[in-house]
């Protein structure tokens, strides 16, 4: 006579390690990318995952929204990476990113690397709205109006005027209109008043 034995087969556990990309800087403008990379170990066998595991990469677009960037399979050493090229969904500033194995993975338990950091940068786009082709007599007070937008077309209304200056170049001189002469109109336009 024989006794029936029950066995439970479970998916293997995964341990995540960070490889590259923590505290990286990346600009939304152009095709500057940040390499985000993680290393996985099948902790039940103390080896790189075999078969390969699919690692998904997320980044925070702002404080409230996570965006799934894409995925890559681990290589024979357990490494998986993704080149992050942010667009206008991602706010300028400090963001989190993570790599994870999700619940649809056939051979491995759900796992995730602790959130890591990156900084998204953007560019200013300047448009001089006034003056436009006028000539001015020396000694008169003149206003220069500049509209400032982000690289994503958002009017920037909260730039501290202490961090702005306008440089005016003529054929024989350079004039600096400093922060003490700049007024923020709170609509993306900054006006510099100076004496010609």
Describe the model:
The protein has 196 residues and is mainly beta. 0% of the residues lie in helices and 47% in strands. The chain contains no helices and 15 strands. The strands form four sheets. Strands 2, 4, 5, 7, 8 and 9 form a six-stranded mixed β-sheet that branches. The protein starts with 13 loop residues before the first strand and ends with a strand. The mean pLDDT is 89.
How widely separated are the two ends?
A: 108 Å
What's the total helix number? 0
Note the quaternary state here: single chain
Largest sheet: 6 strands, mixed
Mean pLDDT: 89
C-alpha geometry: rod-shaped
Structural class: mainly beta
Number of strands: 15
Q: Order of helices and strands, N to C?
A: EEEEEEEEEEEEEEE
Give the strand content: over 45%
Low-confidence sequence ranges: none
Radius of gyration: 27 Å
Relevant terms:
four-stranded antiparallel sheet, 47% strand, 15 strands, single chain, six-stranded mixed sheet, mainly beta, 196 residues, rod-shaped
How is this structure best summarized?
Helices cover 0% and strands 47% of the residues. It is mainly β and 196 residues long.
Chain-wise SSE layout:
Blueprint: E1 14-20, E2 24-27, E3 34-42, E4 54-60, E5 66-73, E6 79-84, E7 93-101, E8 111-112, E9 116-121, E10 124-130, E11 141-150, E12 166-169, E13 174-177, E14 182-184, E15 189-195
Parallel strand pairs: 2-9
Antiparallel strand pairs: 1-3, 3-6, 4-5, 4-7, 7-8, 7-9, 10-11, 11-15, 12-13, 14-15
